Amino acid sequence: MTGSERRQQLLNVARALFAEKGFDGTSVEEIAARANVSKPVVYEHFGGKEGIYAVVVDRETQLLLDRMVSTLHGGHPRVMLEQAAIALLSYVEDSHDGFRILVRDSPVASSTGTFSTVLNDIASQVEHILAQQFAARGYEEKLSALYAQALVGMVALTGQWWLDARKPKRDEVAAHLVNLAWNGLSHLENKPRLLG
User: Fold this and answer.
1) Could you report how far apart the first and last alpha carbons of the chain are, in Å?
2) Measuring CA to CA, how many Å separate 45 from each of 14, 26, 63, 89?
3) Residue 34 burial by CB count (10 A; 0-12/13-18/19+): exposed, middle or buried?
4) Which has the closest alpha carbon to 73: 52, 55, 87?
5) For the chain, percent helix, then strand, then coil, each to nearest 5?
6) DSSP code of residue 192
């Protein structure tokens, strides 16, 4: 096995273990044992558990971010909302181990950590789109950040729930998310007030 093949093998093994047991529950010994190598091989390639974990998280973060950001351009806002919901749910479906790694040690509700950083990056993209839509409709553009966080959070929390539930099917979940978000957004009040 070449050095790059060995490195990829170690990443695949570590990714599966981190998804299954989390960072704290995984050891270099387990990674080495599952890969049928000695511990020094893991240290040689990654310097230790922290190093291999950082590479796994970086790759998953980039994969999710690329998927999400690539859907947020052009077209009607509702279509973009649909595409964003499907992109996140597709990532959960196709890369459930990666999603588990991102949310296990950095849950959606956390204000720090890898997953919250990814969500903030996505929300920033959504904010720009919403600001344009708000301006066109006479709403306060400065509120686009609040609405972007709400939309991204709604989809991310639903994705976290759907990771284990897996019912209904992905497109149906996306349709319900869009239904709630879009019908709520399409009847948005310019100056909302609490009734109580």
Assistant:
1) 68
2) 12, 17, 22, 33
3) middle
4) 87
5) 80, 0, 20
6) -
Report residue 36 as tokens: 């049928």
Please report which residue ranges of 26-95 form alpha helices under DSSP H: 28-35, 39-46, 49-70, 77-94
Spatial separation of the C-alpha atoms in residues 47 and 11, rounded to whole Å:
13
Supply the Cα-derived Rg of the chain in whole angstroms.
20
How much is the pLDDT for 137? 80
Side chain identity at residue 104, one-letter code: R
* Whole-number Å distance between alpha carbons of 66 and 112: 20
Token representation of residue 191:
């100056």
**How wide is the angle at C-alpha 46 spanned by C-alphas 44 and 48, nearest 5°?**
90
pLDDT tens string 165-181: 889 999 999 999 888 88
* 188: its two tokens: 């948005």
Provide the token pair at 85. Answer: 């919901």
Which string of b and e fits 146-155 if b means at least 16 CB within 10 Å? ebbbebbebb
pLDDT tens-digit profile of 99-119? 888 887 654 444 555 677 777
SS3 93: helix
Query: Which residue has tokens 């044992």?
Result: 33
95, 56 Cβ separation under 8 angstroms: no
Question: Which residue type is seen at 44?
Answer: E
pTM for the model: 0.77
